[in-house]
């Protein structure tokens, strides 16, 4: 089981700017915890996400020598990917591809067809740089726009990504719409149909529903999970204020119950939780 902690997702919509030095201290602590991957920042328009305009500065302050954790940065277009590719410390370049045409237009001002051109070019870029693209299928568990959704549609998208050579695909619960009934069938079908692709779950949840969601994905074959300490961030479009990112500490709890060996550093985790509360508590 792989855990991807996503401070980027927790930070990106935060209303007050988190000082770069504070970000660096938090990220360095998370690197010491020992997660498989850290979704640490993004290379997108500073106008769109001002909170992460300092991603390159934050990256320069990271102590990567003592950590086996790999870095992931999110981009929204080829230009962002080209910026990310200039930093060989970044192992993964993440791109959000929506299965909802309406959301793709709202999120990146592109159609799905145009976004797939970006995916193709980013894949070509990664082949040159030795990095790896992670494609997030956003609105992966349904959407509020009445756009078509089904496990078959997710399969059609994955087939296109497979033909391009994409090997990590994360189903993303953009608005907290997922339930066990919409989580289990896609993972069950996709993991069987594409055994050479690593499928991830980027789930959003209320405090009461986290376990049933993780359990549904795990039982259906998913072994890659995204979370954010404290459950902060995640769901700007959700009407329910309690809906946020899957809390990483809950994923750790679940993995322990399943006998999964994560090899995390408990002292660093405790320190990261403390810093997390200093940054986010009081404004959630």
Task: Note down, in words, how this protein is organized.
There is one protein chain. This protein has 284 residues and is α/β, with parallel strands linked by helices. The chain has one domain (2-280): Alpha-Beta Barrel (TIM Barrel). It has helices spanning 7-11, 20-33, 55-60, 78-85, 101-108, 112-129, 151-164, 180-193, 210-219, 248-257, 266-280, and strands at 2-5, 37-43, 70-75, 90-98, 132-138, 168-172, 198-202, 204-205, 224-227, 244-245. The strands form two sheets. The protein has an eight-stranded parallel beta barrel, surrounded by seven helices. A two-stranded antiparallel sheet has the order 8-10. Strand 6, helix 8 (180-193) and strand 7 form a beta-alpha-beta unit. It is globular.
In short:
This protein has 284 residues and is an alpha/beta fold.
Give the topology, please.
Layout: E1 2-5, H1 7-11, H2 20-33, E2 37-43, H3 55-60, E3 70-75, H4 78-85, E4 90-98, H5 101-108, H6 112-129, E5 132-138, H7 151-164, E6 168-172, H8 180-193, E7 198-202, E8 204-205, H9 210-219, E9 224-227, E10 244-245, H10 248-257, H11 266-280
Parallel strand pairs: 1-2, 1-9, 2-3, 3-4, 4-5, 5-6, 6-7, 7-9
Antiparallel strand pairs: 8-10
Helix pairs in contact: 2-11, 4-6, 7-8, 8-9
């Amino acid at each position: 089981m792989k855990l991807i902690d996503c401070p980027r997702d927790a930070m990106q919509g935060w209303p007050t700017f988190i000082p770069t030095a504070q970000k660096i201290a938090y990220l360095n602590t998370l690197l010491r915890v020992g997660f498989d991957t850290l979704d640490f920042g993004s290379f997108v328009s500073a106008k769109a996400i001002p909170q992460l305009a300092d991603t390159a500065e934050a990256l320069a302050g990271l102590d990567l020598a003592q950590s086996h954790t790999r870095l992931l940065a999110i981009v929204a277009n080829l230009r962002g990917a080209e910026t990310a590719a200039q930093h060989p410390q970044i192992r993964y370049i993440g791109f959000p591809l929506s299965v909802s045409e309406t959301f793709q237009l709202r999120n990146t001002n592109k159609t799905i067809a145009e976004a797939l051109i970006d995916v193709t070019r980013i894949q070509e870029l990664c082949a040159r740089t030795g990095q790896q693209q992670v494609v997030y299928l956003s609105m992966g568990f349904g959407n509020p726009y009445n756009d078509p959704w089904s496990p078959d549609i997710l399969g059609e998208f994955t087939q296109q990504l497979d033909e391009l050579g994409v090997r990590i695909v994360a189903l993303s619960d953009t608005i907290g719409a997922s339930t066990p009934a919409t989580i289990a069938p896609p993972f069950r079908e996709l993991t069987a149909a594409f055994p050479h692709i690593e499928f991830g779950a980027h789930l959003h949840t209320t405090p009461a529903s986290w376990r049933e969601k993780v359990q549904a994905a795990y039982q259906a074959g998913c072994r890659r999970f995204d979370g954010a300490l404290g459950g902060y961030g995640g769901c700007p479009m959700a009407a329910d204020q309690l809906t946020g990112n899957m809390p990483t500490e809950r994923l750790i709890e679940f993995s322990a119950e399943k006998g999964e060996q994560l090899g995390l550093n408990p002292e660093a985790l405790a320190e990261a939780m403390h810093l997390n509360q200093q940054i986010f508590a009081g404004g959630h």
